[in-house]
Amino acid sequence: MGVALAPYAADESHSRGRRYDEPVAEYRGEYQRDRDRIIHSTAFRRLVYKTQVFVNHEGDLYRTRMTHSLEVAQVARTAAVALGLNEPLTEAICLAHDLGHTPFGHAGQNELNACMRDFGGFEHNLQSLRVVDELEAKYADFPGLNLMFETREGILKHCSARNARELGDVGERFLKREQPGLEAQLANIADAIAYNNHDVDDGFRAGLLSLDQLRGQPLFATQYDEVHRRYPDLEDRRLIYEIIRRMINTVVTDLINTTQHNLEDAAPNSIDDVRESARPFVVLSERIYEQHVSLKQFLNQHLYSHEKKLEMTYRAEAIIRELFELYTSDVGKMPAEFTNRTERQDEAGRARVVADYIAGMTDRYAIAEHERLLGKS
Ligand code: MG
How do residues 61-110 score in pLDDT, each as one tens digit? Predict the structure, then answer.
């Protein structure tokens, strides 16, 4: 692959491999191949029309799941290279991490989970793995995308013990309380860094967050004071960009330095040493972590729970719930490929097919189907 990997990085020559054996790729590394498969997947293309925080039609400049995933990958790749980790694997995990998300963001996920309460629930991390392991039907020789173990390990960020037992190898770490590889740890925290920062931008653009409110957040205030001092006449929009740019830089630099220290102290010699560690290595310093969490809580309270957002939440919940009720009572209302999968299934099996169908919808497709089938808009 050209770039020297640190001994604790994931190395394809020591991988736990793919579920179905395949000849090695000629011009690409195996994790590059995973990334390419993810980019070519249907689920990836649909991320363009799925909500991150704002519903797709609320405005053209807001983040979607697609641009969010690209920003996560961008943050994580910088840190991966700086730490000697496997960059293609890091990128693959980041691009795939939200493939299982429902339409309408967390409102959609929570409602689908409620609909599936009696049938094993619905969890978007698990669904992301299900998409790459089973639902993408693109290859003649195997179901799903047949990704490398380390990519799948990274996609499955959380998992209940019950689901972990059913998943086999990739679920084992949740039962043994082990860590995933460093690339997975990095993708996980890059996700939080990316959304904390881009949601400040989107929230401000939407007029739901004000400069005064944001200045109550230490991560923001530190950069605000500095930028305001150096460029007192900067217009608000440009001021915000300059602040966010510096916020990302501060947090990512802190992440790289703190992680580097941890790795030097513990000196893991392989990815298995990393997995067996009691605690993750890829972390922020205590001080920056507190500020990061404070901003996250602030966004929770003032952006994600803003009354304007709640209106959208209630509508999204109704659309998901009513579509779920409709399809479970008449599976023939789904396209044939889904209807066929419900044959010889019990009630729980049929509900899972419906959940797969709904989870795969884009925001506007869900709205259009709801309107077409239930005559509501
Ligand atoms: Mg995400």
Answer: 788 899 999 999 999 999 999 999 999 999 999 999 999 999 998 899 99
The per-residue pLDDT for range 7-59, each reduced to its tens digit, is 999 999 999 999 999 999 889 999 999 999 999 999 999 999 888 777 766 77
64 bridge partner residues: 51
- Residue 12 alpha carbon to ligand 1 centre in Å: 25
Q: Tell which of 269, 293, 308 closes a domain.
A: 308
Distance CA 96, CA 158 (A): 14
Regarding whether 227 and 169 lie in a shared domain, the answer is yes
Of 267, 288, 308, at which residue does a domain stop?
Answer: 308
CA of 141 to the centre of ligand 1 (A): 30
Alpha helices in the chain (DSSP H): 30-39, 42-46, 65-82, 87-96, 105-115, 124-130, 149-155, 161-167, 172-176, 182-205, 211-214, 218-230, 236-266, 271-276, 286-299, 307-329, 336-341, 347-360, 363-374
CA 202 / ligand 1 centre spacing (Å):
15
Q: Is the pLDDT of residue 2 over 60?
A: no
- 219 has pLDDT over 80: yes
Q: How far is CA 82 from CA 85, 256, 283, in A?
A: 8, 7, 14
Q: CA-CA distance, 138 to 37, in Å (whole number)?
A: 10
Q: Is residue 7 part of a domain?
A: no
Ligand 1 centre and the CA of 26: distance in Å? 32
Look at residue 273 and tell me whether its pLDDT is greater than 90: yes
Rounded to whole angstroms, how far apart are CA atoms 185 and 195? 16
Within a 13 Å sphere around the CA of 145, how many CA atoms are in the beta-carbon half? 28
CA distance readout (Å), 282 to 77, 83, 226, 262, 374: 14, 10, 28, 8, 48
**Structure tokens given for 355:** 């959940």
Total domains, the chain: 2
Residue 191 domain boundaries: 27-308
Angle between helix axes 286-299 and 182-205 (nearest 10 degrees) is 50
Is residue 1's pLDDT more than 50?
no
Query: How close is the Cα of 186 to the center of ligand 1, in Å?
Result: 13
pTM of the model: 0.96
| pLDDT value at residue 4 | 82
